[in-house]
Amino acid sequence: MKQPLPQTMGQQFGRRSWAEPWKIKMVEPIRMISQEERKRAAAEAGYNTFLMRSEDVYIDLLTDSGTSAMSDRQWAGIMMGDEAYAGSRNFYHLEEAIQSFYGYRYIVPTHQGRGAEHLISQALIKPGMTIPGNMYFTTTRLHQELAGGTFVDVIIDEAHEPSSEHPFKGNVDLDKVQSLINEVGAEQIGYISLAGTVNMAGGQPVSMANVRALRQLCDAYGIRIYLDATRMVENCFFIQEREPGYADKPIAAILKEFCDYTDGAWMSAKKDNLVNIGGWLAVNHEDVFDLARNMVVVYEGLHTYGGMAGRDMEALAIGIEEAVQDDHVRSRVDQVRYLGQLLIEWGVPIVCPVGGHAIFLDAKRFYSHIPQDRFPAQTLAAELYLDAGIRSMERGIVSAGRDPETGEHRYPALELTRLTIPRRVYTQAHMDVVAESVKAVYDAREETRGLKIVYEPKYLRFFQARFEVIGQ
Ligand code: F0G
Asked: What is the residue with the minimal CA distance to atom 5 of ligand 1?
């Protein structure tokens, strides 16, 4: 009798796997240093994963920012850099890619996302203005504050509940926006700061219905909407998967439709766009473009390179096109979910549903005996490093910083430790190692007591703060 094909066997057992739409052409060796060395490295870094040397890290899940693997096409693009100070041909490729995939009219390149945040904040915010947004992001809010604005969170309440299974936890609560308009007046609203997906909420998406309704509301008051498009491609994947009417639409079409409801976007190209450095601002209004293009020469570089080399812009133009391919986005998000599924099965508390770029461990439930001012999420990040050389990032009270008025800690509802998955970098075996380490740290949770802060800088303290272990 003929043997069944492996494919048929797969069907027989009801199991069909997905796999990455690429194969590996070049590798970078990594190694786990000894437990003694890890203890020393953690103490020397003040238990802050931002202060560690990457050579001391085994699996680096600090961020998905600038850590993607570029494709062979992108590396080929690097060799095609036109390093002219003005009018590099790579700029025009980049401009064309953004116009055709995101649909905006005018483009200003920047060295990375916060460069673009700076330009848009300075261009649109006057002192005293309010900027409503679907949850803060650290650098975004700081630039809004430095321009004299006040950020107000208008995300739906479910976003602050780690166990809420709402499919679009990134949605804006239109009632909150309406109340704010009634309170401060539409002319005092700088713009709506809309992010897709929402990083600090756990990589949670915004629905198309929500942005459509938001547009309607804003049109009634003449308020503009600007999009943080950093992980918008992943947002589009969730729309395709969860929102009625989008299952058969390609990611590229969903992206274009979503952006059409907004007046412009800023971008950290180091995420979705698959490059190691780069960013851009794109707007539809000529007056905003004029201001931003003028300011970019002061802070970043000429308006046809904005802090990037020609070769960076070429790799970015190619990355934009690769980023919207359906098979790429699916495998990227599915890898994140693979890790999430293991942790859920093993009873580890995480933010649900699993978002686009990371697993967010719920440190409040993980270490329910450690009070928030002993930094449970920072503690968890330190413990994961000590256990298996895994680097993660605190997204809780340390990231939230201090209230500029009172100087007190801001106590965010979410106290999370982020395991961020770089794009096209690690394999499923790495995800298994990570899951097993998280489980080991969870099983030993009772022995952990927390940290105390011994140094903190004025701005974005999470990057440089130092800690000591309590009881030592
Ligand atoms: N907006 C979002 C949603 C981000 O996640 C980031 C960066 C930025 C803007 C700023 O962009 O780093 O290129 O200047 N997020 C990184 C992270 C740092 O790890 O989440 P940038």
From this structure: 199
